[in-house]
Amino acid sequence: MNGVQLLTHDRRRKSTSRRLPTGFSLLELLAVVTLLGVMGAAVTMRYGRDTLSNAGARSEARRISLGMLQAQRAAIRTGTSHGVKIYGGNSWAVVSVGSGGSRTIVDGPHVIDSQLQLTTNSDEVVFDFEGNGTSVFQAVIKGKDRTWQLRVLPLTRMIDSREVSN
């Protein structure tokens, strides 16, 4: 009988023990979200305009230069000329150059944001089987506040992308 009473006594002790509350209260979560909002607004006011105005031109310059790199590597890998063709300043595509001079789109076309202005000295840049640019190519991507320049020099494997002053 003592064994039964001890078992009952243990059950009561477990059921009457109090647990400490876990998690956060609604008030604590509200305070954290409010502070994050205030800090986010301060960061946006300080860095927002400069960073956001640069993002469009820089990202488009990066996309086009990566397209050039893709064409250059495809030319080396396949042994056939590849390049980037610009269509009217509002789109571009990676192309493969056939033996008769025909162009086949490999990747694209990629549309350029209407808020950006693209000017080039040629409508395409072509890379030979060694990855060398076959002609001088220069593109200028002008955004609202920033301007980026892409250059490919003939007989080099260099694709130069840099920000230029307005």
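the 2nd protein, sequnce then structure:
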Amino acid sequence: MKEQRDHFLAMQFEAQHAHYMRHYGKAAFWLIERSKEPVGRLYLDEWENELRLIDIALMPEHRGRGLGGAMLADVMSAAVSRGKAVRAHVEKSNPAQHLYARLGYRVIEDKQVYDLLEWYSKAGAEQPDGMPPGAVGLALGARKVAVGRGLSAVFGPQMVSGPRKILR
């Protein structure tokens, strides 16, 4: 049973990753680790005027502990350093909607099931409002960076062939 589940999850991951790469060919894929254990993932693409948050996910047992906020803080810090907005499609029923609202994201377009959210720094801001500074490293080409709250992010296509590392 476990072998079938793992096979199904691997196939699901490969299909989703192929979709992201087909539609967002330059996107960076990050495996998020805590104490060298995978706890989540992040797909991020850099466009002319924005950082597009394609997918952010944490394992259920790691949600609600500030880790998602730490990940978003680094994305937002990277956006500040580039003078860009952060945008993401988020399902209306996603509990993380509260986190996005608390961080200052606003709905800029209603896409029926999803909201297109946007965050843009106030002029001269160095860090997202109310968030501790993180290591501004996401999407900068580093192989591994500290994110904050004991998290690190490992960049790379090398993780794509090993979805079981993500889906334990």
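The two ends are 14 Å apart (CA to CA). Confidence is low (pLDDT under 50) at residues 123-143, 155-168.
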